[in-house]
Structures are given as structure tokens and as C-alpha cells.
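Retro notes, item 3 of 5
We never archived the inputs for the iron/sulfur cluster complex last cycle. Fixing that now. Sequence and ligand:
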Amino acid sequence: MRVRALGLMSGGLDSMLAVRVLMDQDIEMTGITFQTPFFGPEGAQKAAGQLGIPLRVVDIGEVHLEMLKNPKYGYGSQMNPCIDCHALMLKTAGGIMDAEGFDFLATGEVLGQRPMSQRKDALRAVDKLSGYGGYILRPLSAKLLWETVPEELGKVDRQKLMDIQGRSRKPQMTLAAHFGLEEYPSPGGGCILTKAGFADRLRDLLATQEEVGLHDVELLKCGRHLRLPSGRRLVVGRIHADNLKLQELAREEDLLLRVKGVPGPTGLMAVRVSAREVELAAGIVAAYSDAETGEEAIVVVSGKDDREITIAVRPKEEFRELLI
Ligand code: SF4
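Structure as it came back at the time:
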């Protein structure tokens, strides 16, 4: 019977090569990729299309967020819990492997490529935490690593695997040329959890809000965030796409604010705030609109009960200290 493996795909070159190396051994490959608010399947979909293999997209948003609040191996340079994140992906893929009779899992990890998460001890930690240790094959560095179950069983020819390590991309580019892979993204350096600005916001959210759910994280990706005196947040769109996203994200209990008849941002806030804070929020939304400073503006507040607030427009600099 033909050997079947699940290849974890990020959309980057390494995971494409890992799959391609195994396809060369006539192993039947299926790609698997994951969806959370911090990364999505788009790159992997393109990569799987190029390789001509089917791809599973698995939403792990909820469980990933829970892990992110308290990762066993901590964070990388920002809010990226890479060891726990890899382990979670492999654990999820391992469950599918068990349920559907795949022979093993493959990843594009390269020994020593990332200083924290791809050292040998970190790879061991990922194996252990995932619960699928012997079944995780890393074709690009396999000859430098411990033998896995599919190698022991002769399902994979270890001699045909690679011994790439370190941060240089040259071996991967040579291999890509060998396989005729011409289109692949340049290394991206990780998901948005590795980006300083977003990581700061997330750290602040986790430190100041007791319950953090996927909705809060989606909001975090949007617009400016200001903290009102009660501690509640007002999100104000920066660009048109933010305004549309905020309208889409607004729940029944939220308030949406916008200035009537003047181009400007949409604001979103939780309804459980005092009338004074709604007025403050209206003032902020007006300040960020095209309404003339010193003139009067009408702010439409939509929620359970729609209403309008007439307000004197103040300069947005006055609200700067509320920015998170
Ligand atoms: S960079 Fe992001 S997606 Fe990649 S392992 Fe780290 S936390 Fe997970």
C-alpha cells in the first residue's frame, strides 16, 4: 500500500520543499494548514496548488488563543509562542493522522534556522509537547536528527532525505531550482504575533482585560485603540477598510459611532459605558473626522437605540493620551 503523509504547510519555501522531497519518494502527500486570527491559509493554498496536492485547512483559533495566554515554553522576541504553536499544530495534525490512517507527519523545519524555536532541544520539546514525537519527520534536516518511526519501518528512505541546517537560504534555493519551483515567497519572519506593534497591543489587552476572546483579537487588528476612563476601549478606524471591518465586527450589544454628513472614521465600543463616556467617544470620533475643529458636528450613535449627539469638534491631539 502506498505510504501517505500529512505535510504541514505554512506557504513558505521550506514546507514546500519538505513535501516535494517526500513526493520524490513516491509518498502520497496531503497538505495541512491552520487558521487563527494571527495567520491564515492563503500562502499554503497557493503552495499546495503549485505542488498539485490536496490541502486541509483547520481552524484552531479558539484553542490557539487559549494556548497563547499561557504558553508552556513562553514567547519568542514578541508575542510569538513558537514552540507551543508548532506543538499545537502537530498535535492537531496528529489527531487527523490517527483518525484517517496517515503514516506520519512532515514539517519544513530546518535545524538551527531560527535561533529559539529550531534548535535541536526546541524540536525535541515540540515533539514531546505534541504527543506525536516519533511520527514527526523533518525531511530537510532529517539526516542530522533522530530516526523517526517511518524511517525505522522503511516507509521513508533516510538516505534520500536532506541534511540542511543553519540560517543560510542557499541550500533551499538550490533545491527549489532542482525541483523547478520558481515561485515562492521570500522568508517572512513569522506571523503577526512576531510584529512589535501588534504584540504591544496584544500584551496590553491580555494584561488589562480579564476575558479575551477571538472577537477582541479581531478588533485588535483594526484601527486605533483608545482607553476610556472606565478602562473600556474605543476602536476608531484609520482607513476605509477598518471602518467596514468594524461595522462587520459590531455585535448586538456594541455601539457604532460616525459623524453625520462628513467623511470620517467609524468608532466601535462596548455598550456598557456611561452616557458621559459615549459623549467622550463621540468627541473622539468627531476629532478624527474631516469636520472643522471648533465647528459643531452631529455624531450618530447606533446600537440598540439609535441616537444623535451634537458636539463641538476638538483637535484630535487632545485625545492623544488615551491612545493605547
Ligand atoms: S511565527 Fe507565528 S505561526 Fe509561526 S510558529 Fe511562531 S507563533 Fe506560530
